[in-house]
Amino acid sequence: MERYVPIDPDRAEEVYLDYNATAPLRHEALEAMLDALRSVGNASSVHAAGRDAASRVELARQQLARLLGCAPGELIFTSGATEANNLALRAGYSSGGILATTAVEHPAILEAARAITADGPGTLVELPVDRDGAVELAPLEAACGQGKVAIVSAMLANNETGVLTDLEPIIKLAHEAGALVHTDATQYVGRLPVDLSELDVDLVSLSAHKFGGPQGVGALFVRRGASVPHRPLLIGGGQERGWRAGTLNVPGIAGLGAAAEAARIHLHNESTRVTALRGVLEEGLTSRLPDCHINGVRSPRLPGVTSVTLAGLPADALLAAMPEIAASDGSACASGAPTPSHVLLAMGLSRPDADSTLRFSLGYATIEHDVERAIEATVRAVGEVRTAMTATSEPSSSP
Q: What would the mean pLDDT of 372-377 be, rounded to a whole number?
């Protein structure tokens, strides 16, 4: 186990608990990237330097395939899960058909799905979830009964709550209706085992930086034999079997591969240890803060992810009161947005409660001391924010 230490000396005392936003770079990934950066060569060139670059790309493809339980040739490298999601939805969608997804997807799915279906005669169906984040299947059953579903996209694990999606009934309904199935596995890969030889999905998206690889690189799995047409977003080259034009990011891909291999080797130990640390965190918070509520606690969840609602206390104020803790008030990709979490609203939380929710996400380098400090900092912040809010609400005694 590595200990995460910020490079910036001014942040040396920071406790990093925002792995769902991005994980610290694993040292294996850093070494692979530095080695690739010291070399020169375009992976499409036929000379020795080009062949060396291509060999690094293919090694990474093999390393990622081992983590996913698929064939290397089923993987397309992208700039990340956002691009992979857009590729998957555009490839799977047919004009005039139905695109079905869930109401709690990442914006990279929801916004892409809305854009894809906006201009044509097709229909977007957003499946609701219950209070525990479980997907309700009735609208999908109705859509599949119409026989016009083109593609169904449902995430494996939610980025805000960590709630896992039961894909099996979704896959069954979709495939019986002749539809493709895509899953955004960005938060799942590298944290829990996945075997794509057993999970019968057609398309899978992921990003390297969620499991200790570099930012700006990801992949799309396209099952061999699936009826998925090529609909590339980028035109101008034959790279990645025509799925994605452009010179390959060899150092980034090398880092992805090395992180995938490290995640695979340590997966069981890391997931077990991080799940136990999450238990310590949640017990510490709920035992000391009576108004604390854990979202999705009755559902299967990712190791290390907890969504904590502290009613009546604005999340941004709480985070400001504990600057030594790197956590989130929701998805980092939506930070600064004027609206509350669409995930929490879909789960039935009120807007005030959604605005009073923190997300802690632990990972491979988290230690028990980090969790203890996070508990103490949160309890302290709750007291400070409550005191400040009480003082602000009290009428002035000045004449």
A: 98
